[in-house]
Amino acid sequence: MFPFSSQNPYPSERSATYARGGMVAASQPLAAQAGRDMLARGGNAIDAAIATAAALTVVEPTCNGIGSDAFALVWIKDDNGKGTLHGLNASGAAPKALTIDAVKAGGHDTMPMYGWLPVTVPGTPSAWAELSRRFGKLPFADLLTPAITLAREGFPVTPVISQLWEQAHATFTKAFTEPATQGWFETFAPKGRAPRAGEMFKSDAHADTLAELADTSCESFYRGALAERIDAFSRTTGGYLRAEDLAAHQCEWVDPISTRYRGVDVWEIPPNGQGLVALMALNIVGGYDDLHARDDITVLHRQCEAMKLAYTDGHAFIADPAHMTTDTATLLSEPYAASRRDTITDTACDPTPGTPPQGGTVYLATADAEGNMVSFIQSNFHGFGSGVVVPNTGIALQNRGQGFSLDSTHVNALSPGKRSFHTIIPGFLTRDGQALGPFGVMGGFMQPQGHMQVVMNLLDFGLDPQAALDAPRWQWMGGKRIAIEAGYPLHLMKELRSRGHKVESAFDRTGFGRGQIILRDPATGVLCGGTEPRTDSAIAVL
Predict the structure, then answer these.
(1) Is the dihedral of CA 260, 316, 414, 385 positive or negative?
(2) DSSP annotation of 89
(3) Is pTM, for the whole model, over 0.90?
(4) One short Pfam family name for this protein (predicted)?
C-alpha cells in the first residue's frame, strides 16, 4: 500500500479520499462532479478531465476561461501493467502584429496587465479537442454538455470564488478604462457587482459559445465563426489579435521532462513552462541526505535557498524553447545542481543566476479504473485575464503576454509568433515505470514552489496526499523575502529571521496555491486523493 502515515498531522483539515473505480479532484465541486459523470457513463480519465476543465470555465471564471492556455500530462496504461506519459503544450503565441516597439509606442516600459497588449492566442479549446481526438472514448460534444448546462441554467457561486470575484470587481472598476474592457462588467457583473456566495449566476452567452465549440470540436474558435468575431472585436477596439493568428495555432505534443527524487521520477512539462524550476530545486535539495523532519529550521532554510536559486535560473534561461540558449538537460544535470548547492550557506542569500555549462489558474487531476490518469491545468494567467471580453460570447481573453520582457536581449523578449515564459505546470509521479499519479499546485509563480513542497511532503516526510496539501506553505517573494503561511511554528519564523531571511507573516491563504493530488497503488489499483483546503475544492469518486 502507500508508504504514508495514516495520521494527518493537520487534524483541522479533511482526510485523504480512497476509491477504486475512478476519481476526479478539482477546485470546485460541480466541476469535479461533471468529470465523475463522464466516468460513470463509460468515459475514461481523459474524458473526465475535459468535462471538468470545461465546467471550470463556467463555475470558476476568476481563474480560467475559454480564452485560457492549457498544459496536460496524460498517462495511458498499456496491457503490460505499465504505460506511457504524454505531454501536451497548448499555450498560444503572441500575435504577429505585436512587437516591442508597438508596446513601447503605447507608453509602456513593461508589458501591461490589462487590455489588448498582453493578449496571446488562447490554447485551451485546442487542448480539449486534441485530448479527446487522441485519447478520449466519449463523443466530444458530450464532454461539454455539463458545462453548457451550468452556464445556461446557472449555478450557486462558491465562497472563495465569490471573494475573488469581488476583489476583481473592485480592482477593475478603477483599472478598466479602455473600450475593449468594458464588456467585462456586462458579462461578469450584470447586476453592477460581483455575485455573492450562494447566489445563482448564469451566462447564456457562455453557454452558446460552449455549444459552438461542442458542435465544431473547437474548430470555430480558430478557423470559424468564433474566430471571425474575435478578429472583428480586436480590429474595432485597437487590438492586435487577428484571424490569421488564431488559424495558425496548433497545440503540440511534447516529451515530458523529469528528475529522479528519492527513487521516484518527478515529471513536468518542458519549457516554455516553468516546471523546470521545480525540478532544478528538487535536484538541489536532493543532494542532502538528512531532510527528514519537516518542521526543522535546516530543512526549511535549505528548501527556501534551493527554490531561490532555481527560480532565479528559471527567469534567466526559460523561454519559448526555440529561443532558449541553454538546454534543459544542462540545467537538470547533477554537476550543475551540485554547483548551485555549493553556494548555499547557513544564511540567506540574495540570489543571482548561475553559469550553466554551455552546450489565476485551475488545476485538476483525474484517474479511471483502467489506470489512465491526467494532470491538467488551464489559466487566464492573472485572475480574469486581460479584461478583454468578446461581446456576447463569454470569452474572457488571457493576459499571458504580460510574462514577456521588453528587453530585446532577454531570452524571454516579446517577439511576434513567440510563446512567453509560462507559469502553469502540471506534475506527475512514476516509480519503476509505473504511474503513481498526477499532482499540481496552481497559483502563478507559487506553482513550482508548491510542487517542490508537496513532493517533499510526500516523499521526504511521509504525508498522505491530503496532509501534503493541508500542510502550511512558504513562498519566496524575491530577494531575501519569504512569506510564511499561518500555521508554521513561531520558532521557525524566528530562526529564519536569524539566518537573514526577511520573513513576512501571511494570513490570506489564497496566495499560497491551490492543489490536487491523486496517487494510485500499482499493486491494488486503489486511488488515494487529496484536495485543496484553500479553496472550494472537492473529490468526486466512482
Answers:
(1) positive
(2) E
(3) yes
(4) G_glu_transpept
> Is there a contact between 168 and 185 (Cβ–Cβ < 8 Å)?
no
The CB density around residue 21, as the number of other CB atoms within 10 Å, is 14
Bridge partners (DSSP) listed for residue 368? 22
CB neighbours of residue 342 within 10 Å: 10
Indicate the pairing of strand 481-485 with strand 502-506: parallel
Is residue 271 pLDDT above 80, yes or no? yes
Among 98, 94, 361, 394, residue whose Cα is nearest residue 230? 394
The three three-digit cell numbers of residue 211, written as one number:
455549444
Contact status, residue 195 vs residue 162, Cβ threshold 8 Å:
yes
Handedness of CA 456, 459, 460, 462 (dihedral sign): positive
Tens of pLDDT along 507-539? 777 778 889 999 999 999 999 999 999 889 999
* pLDDT per residue as tens digits for the range 277-300: 999 999 999 999 988 888 899 999
Supply angle C-alpha 527, 89, 108, rounded to 5: 125
Question: Checking phi first, is residue 313 left (phi over 0); if not, alpha (psi -120 to 50) or beta?
Answer: alpha
User: Helix (H, G, I), strand (E, B), or coil: what is residue 19?
Assistant: strand
Residue 361 annotated among the catalytic residues of the structure: yes
- How far is Cα 72 from Cα 363, in angstroms, rounded to an integer? 10
- Catalytic residue, from 145, 326, 361, 423: name it: 361
Q: Are 122 and 92 a contacting pair, CB within 8 Å?
A: yes
Cα 489 from chain centroid (whole Å):
29
What is the Cα 459 distance to its own chain's centre?
22
Do 100 and 414 contact (CB within 8 A), yes or no? yes
Task: Provide the b/e sequence for 508-521 (b: ≥16 CB within 10 Å).
Answer: ebeebbbbbbbbbb
Alpha-carbon Rg for the chain in angstroms: 22
Q: For residue 248, give the C-alpha cell.
A: 495558425
CA–CA gap between residue 308 and residue 483 (Å, rounded): 13
